[in-house]
Amino acid sequence: LVPFTAGSGSDVYARFFGKKLSEILGQPVIVENKPGAGGALSVQSLKAEPADGYTILLGSNSPIAVNVVAVKNLSYDPVNDLRPVAGITRSMAVFMVSNDSPLKTIKDLEKRGRQQPPLNSGTYSPGYQLAAAQFTSQAKTPFQTIVYKGLSQTLTDVMGNQIDLAVVDSTGSVSTATSGKARALVVTGDTRHPELPDVPTLKESGYPEAVHYSWTSFWVAAKTPDAIVNVLAEAMQKALAQPDSKVFIEKTGAELMPFGPEAMRKFQLAEIERFRKAAQDSGFKPEE
User: Fold this and answer.
1) Which of helix, strand or coil describes residue 128?
2) What single string gives the DSSP state of each residue in 205-260?
3) CB count, 10 Å around CB of 179?
4) CA-angle at 210, arms to 205 and 215, nearest 5°
5) Over the range 1-30, which residues count as b (16 or more CB within 10 Å of their CB) and which as e?
C-alpha cells in the first residue's frame, strides 16, 4: 500500500523493493496506490486486513511521524497501530530561489526574513513546513508559508518569482538546480548533497538543530507475529544490501537508510519528538 500517487518517489521505491521482495520470497508483490488524507487512507486499509504480513505499508515521514503533530484528532496511532519492518531511504530538503533572486547566502535569507512584508515560502507538505521551522524559529525569521499541492507547481512558482523561496525535497529538485533553472541556497542534510557540493548545509551555517530528511520505510499491522516480521525484515535487509539497490536509490537523489525493525522504531520515536519540538518552537498549528 502506497499512500501517494503512482510515479511519486514513494511509489517508485515501493515498486523497486516490491520486485526485490518478490524475488527473495518467491511471492508476487502487488503495489496498490491509496492516496488521500495525508496517508490515513492507506493506514486504515492496512488495519482492515489480517495482521499476517501479506499487506505492507510504504510509510514516509508524513503518515509515520509528521501527522502526529500536523493533524488534529489523527484517526490512527502510528506507534501503536503499526510495526516497523525496515527503513529504506532518506533525502534532505533544499531551500530553492530563482536565478535572479537577491538572496545569495543564508545571511541574505536571515536579513530578508526579518523584514516586512513577510518572506513568502512555498512548500507542499507539513513536513517541509516543519523542516523550515527548525531554521526560522532559531533565526527569528517568520516565513509566510504558501502550501501547494505538489513539487512541480512549487518549483514553477519559485522560478517565476511568484514566491521568494521554495522548501522542497532533494529527490525532485536537485536536477532543477544542477540544470541551472533555479538556485539552491542551502540544504538540510548532515553533510552537503553530493550533487550540490558548493551548497552549504544549515547545520554548518550555524543551525545545528536544523537537520531534516524525508524518509521511506516498510510497516505492517501492529499484531503481526514476530516470526512473520522477522522473515520480511531479513528479506528487506538482503534487498537493501544488493549493489544495484544503492545505485538505484542514489540516482533518485536519495540515500539508503537500511534500518532493521528495532532501529526503525527508535528512529520513528525520535522523529516524532523532533517534529513536535519544531512545531512548538515555531507556533505551527495542526490541521483540523
Assistant:
1) helix
2) TT-TT---EEEEEEEEETT--HHHHHHHHHHHHHHHHSHHHHHHHHHTT-EE----
3) 8
4) 130
5) bbbbeeebbbbbbbbbbbebbeebeeeebe
190 alpha-carbon distance from chain centroid? 15
Alpha helices for the chain (secondary structure H): 9-25, 40-48, 61, 67-70, 106-113, 126-139, 151-159, 170-178, 226-241, 243-251, 261-282
Closest Cα to residue 215, out of 124, 123, 88, 127?
88
Per-residue pLDDT of the chain (288 residues; tens, 9 = 90+): 999 888 777 889 999 999 999 999 999 999 999 988 888 899 999 999 999 999 999 999 999 999 999 998 999 999 999 999 999 999 999 999 999 999 999 999 999 999 999 999 999 888 888 889 889 988 999 889 998 888 889 999 999 999 999 999 998 888 899 999 999 999 999 999 999 999 999 999 999 989 999 999 999 999 999 999 999 999 999 999 999 999 999 988 899 999 999 999 999 999 999 999 988 888 888 876
CA pair distance 130, 201, nearest whole angstrom:
16
Cα–Cα dist 245/252, whole Å: 11
| Strand 183-187 relative to strand 255-256, pairing | unpaired
Phi, psi of 88 (to 5 degrees): -120, -65
Residue with cell 521482495: 21
| Segment (H or E) for 30 | none
Is residue 72 within 8 Å of residue 288, measured between CB atoms?
A: yes
Cell, residue 276: 513536535
